Amino acid sequence: MQIGDLSRATGVNIETIRYYERSGVLPLPPRLGNGRRVYEDSDVRRLGFIRHARELGFDLKSVQTLLALQERPEASCVDASRIAQAQLDEVERRLVKLQNLRSELSRMVAKCGKGVVAQCRVIEALYTPSS
């Protein structure tokens, strides 16, 4: 299959596929005489793995490590678990930040009298960060 077919099969943009190839997380495919890339079903599976990992927030280095681990099915999954735990910890940190952001925005909106800008509590609150 060609790169457009791979893109449609996986939902991954063509430029992103090329980026993954340059980054080394997706192997460079063989090319036809006309220079077009030729992909296999294994590339669809690998790109699906990469896409799902990226959707879960894993960086490319972690994705590369996870891909390398899956090529050694007899190996311990301790490293995979460590990588997933680190990602979970990061998600938890982001959730705390988002909850704080939500509280601050809710406070700003609640204090807004919806009058004139000169008396706008939203504008005023942006000048005075909460503690």
How does this model look, in words?
There is one protein chain. The longest helix has 34 residues, at 78-111. The chain is mostly helical and 131 residues long. It folds into 2 domains: 1-57, Multidrug-efflux Transporter Regulator, Chain: A, Domain 2, CATH 1.10.1660; 76-131. The model has no long low-confidence stretch (mean pLDDT 91). It contains 6 helices and no strands. Helices cover 65% and strands 0% of the residues. This is HTH merR-type domain-containing protein. Keywords: Coiled coil, DNA-binding, Transcription, Transcription regulation.
Task: Sum this structure up briefly.
The chain is an all-alpha fold and 131 residues long. Helix content is 65%, strand content 0%.
**CATH-defined topology of the largest domain:** Multidrug-efflux Transporter Regulator, Chain: A, Domain 2
Give the SSE string.
HHHHHH
Largest sheet: none
Q: Count of DSSP E strands?
A: 0
Shape: elongated
CATH uppermost class of the largest domain: Mainly Alpha
Examine the secondary-structure arrangement and name the CATH architecture of the largest domain. Orthogonal Bundle
Total domain units = 2
Beta-strand level of the residues, as a percent range? under 5%
Helical proportion, percent range = 55-70%
Provide keyphrases for this structure:
131 residues, mainly alpha, Multidrug-efflux Transporter Regulator, Chain: A, Domain 2, 2 domains, 6 helices, DNA-binding, DNA-binding transcription factor activity
